[in-house]
């Protein structure tokens, strides 16, 4: 069984939707793992969300291209949790939920509390924006 086949089987068996490259480090060397991940991306089995971050994929009904199985708004908090970053609702979402505003934000904004994040996460033209606050909101 090739590394690509082992990797594809491993991804199919997992319940998780998002994966880190480190999840597959035990399957082979860095070079062969990179090659196998690239082949799976080309085959449409997974999509790349950021550096070392991948998600299960499905075919788009509109374009036929591979897209993540869940929207980026759902996947980003899962990725950040896997990376050990605690997330909170953004200020705009909090204002909407508390009925202080009727506007929903157009961009996906995640509050990371006092921690600053520089990691770029996203897919296609939609990327996650981060806001940090000194006070902890629950």
UniProtKB/TrEMBL annotation:
Superkingdom classification of source: Bacteria
Name of the protein described by the UniProt record: S-adenosylhomocysteine hydrolase
Organism: Pandoraea capi
Listed InterPro entries: DUF6088
Lineage, highest ranks first: Bacteria, Pseudomonadati, Pseudomonadota, Betaproteobacteria, Burkholderiales
